[in-house]
Amino acid sequence: MDIERLMVMIADDNIANLKVAKNSLSDLYDVFTIPSAVKMFDLLERNKPKLILLDIDMPGMDGFEAIKILKGKPETADIPVIFLTAKSDAESELEGLSLGAIDYISKPFMPQLLRKRVELHLTVELQRHMLEEQAQKLEEKSDELRHFNENLQRLVEEKTGKVLELQSAILKTVADLVESRDDITGGHIERTQHGLKVLIDGLDELGLYKEQIQEWDMDLMLQSSQLHDVGKIAIADSILNKPGRLTREEFEEMKRHTTLGVRIIERIEAETSEGEFLKYAKILAGTHHEKWDGSGYPDGLAGENIQLPGRLMAIADVYDALVSDRPYKKAFSHDEAVRIILEGRGNHFDPVLADVFAQVADRFKASCSSNEIGGNNDDKNVHGQH
After folding, report:
1. Geometric angle at alpha carbon 332, from 331 and 337, rounded to 5°
2. Are 56 and 33 in contact (CB under 8 A)?
3. Contact 107/84 with Cβ under 8 angstroms?
4. Which of 60, 251, 285, 296 has its CA 20 to 30 A from that of 29?
């Protein structure tokens, strides 16, 4: 590596040594010769060399004292120091190295050896500085990349938030459309969504179905619950808005809202890549009327063959039907609704989930109960054909 006009300082009280050192190095470097350590520090106030050759045995301030001062000041601590000394004992050499010197050159020194040792150390020093500069640049680039990634992440989160807001608004609109066709509806979809959240929180607190719940995207799960009755869009008004109990034939038609809901969601699924969200919606629409003992609909599934979201929604759905007014019945009290659901433990409802419901019933009441006329006409047969 070519080294051009780097500054080297030589501090030695022996004039002959200074002359030999300067003659050896001045063709390659800007060489400053100083007869004492004290004067060296005066010169260092105005200049910063790339290397200092420092005699150990000098009057006034020896080399050991000088290097302590050099390494103690931030502005000179990184200047490499090579000791020039006539001492040959290992203890002196060890002391100098422990104070921060990078090398020892014994006096009297050969000019060619001095030149080579200086050239070697300056080459190493230049490479070190180059590596430090490269590391600094890499760090700066890393900072820039980190800031870029942070900004990108923020933008992605903002865009994602807007998409989720839009998605939620669309779902709410569809849910409202379903409910608007039902003259006796009063927030059933919203209340069952709250009830679903209370049950899931209860499972989490008790550590039940932990592995399954951890795999869920909870926001998507709760949003998709708004579509659990979407199939009612295809049910005739004469059935949906009938003021009394449904006939057996009418109830069979009403039961179709589960399979119709799945079909509607599958049609949406065919037009989008958002399968995760629609996966939850389809499960909830198709299974929220299945029963633990297999007597539910549309498929007569039993036990854990009914997917967990559907088993949870079954409790939230029936609770809201029980505590809501109907033209053919008054709303049950919260305590009565809890009793009826617990009576359905092991036949209508998953016994584990029924036990969880019992433990969170007070929170369920606060989140789900309403004095408004609510629910849906599918629940006209909650104590009969349902």
Report:
1. 135
2. no
3. yes
4. 60
Helices 188-206 and 351-368, axial angle in degrees (round to 10): 130
**Element of type H or E holding 8:** strand 6-11
181-381: CATH class: mainly alpha
- Whole-angstrom CA distances from 106 to 82, 220, 235, 305 are 10, 78, 103, 88
**Are the CB atoms for 261 and 230 separated by under 8 Å?**
yes
Residue position matching structure tokens 């200047």: 79
Residue 325 or 360, more confident: 360
Percent share of the chain, pLDDT over 70: 87
Question: What crossing angle do the helices spanning 275-287 and 248-269 adopt, rounded to 10°?
Answer: 170
Specify the 3-state DSSP secondary structure of 82: strand
Q: Which superfamily does 6-133 belong to? A: Response regulator (3.40.50.2300)
Compute the radius of gyration of the chain from its Cα atoms.
42
SS3 9: strand
Total-model pTM: 0.57
- Please tell me whether residue 31 adopts helix, strand or coil conformation: strand
Strand duo 29-34 + 81-85: pairing: unpaired
Order of strands, sheet of 6-11, starting from the edge strand that comes earlier in the sequence: 29-34, 6-11, 51-55, 81-85, 103-106
